[in-house]
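Researcher: I'd like a candidate sequence for this fold, 139 residues long. If you have to choose between options at a position, lean toward the conservative one.
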């Protein structure tokens, strides 16, 4: 094969390789766009379901609060059989304040354990990985 024939074949293969790369790039772009459309549609559907679920959970919480209020009234009425109504109401109110104080203290301890909000174990692990990589790179 002569040099001009060889160069002509290289030109043909370059253009075909270039064309293949161009087509692959276009197909990859279309694939990514399609996947993004699919992800958007899926997230939209999940968002609608999450909104509906959140609304139903909110309604359930409201009904639970009302039920707890009815339970408190029942406790006062039951205790009023043994003592006067005002004393029964004061006793139940005091018990509720004690329960609220205990829950507040427990919640405060949990919040204190959560600060700072950085993922410290993950940060330490990444630092150790970086040090390991540095150590291996210098060998």
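Model: Candidate sequence:
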């Amino acid at each position: 094969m002569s040099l001009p024939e060889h160069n002509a074949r290289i030109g043909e293969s370059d253009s075909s390789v270039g064309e293949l790369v161009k087509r692959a790039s276009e197909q990859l772009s279309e694939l990514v766009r399609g996947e993004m459309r699919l992800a958007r549609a899926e997230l939209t559907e999940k968002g609608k379901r999450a909104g509906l679920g959140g609304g139903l959970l909110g309604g359930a919480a409201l009904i639970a609060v009302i039920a707890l209020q009815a339970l408190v009234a029942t406790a006062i009425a039951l205790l009023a059989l043994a003592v006067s109504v005002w004393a029964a109401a004061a006793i139940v109110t005091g018990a509720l304040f004690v329960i609220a104080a205990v829950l507040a203290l427990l919640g405060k301890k949990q919040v204190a354990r959560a600060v700072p909000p950085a993922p410290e174990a993950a940060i330490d692990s990444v630092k150790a990985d970086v040090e390991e990589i540095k150590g291996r790179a210098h060998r």
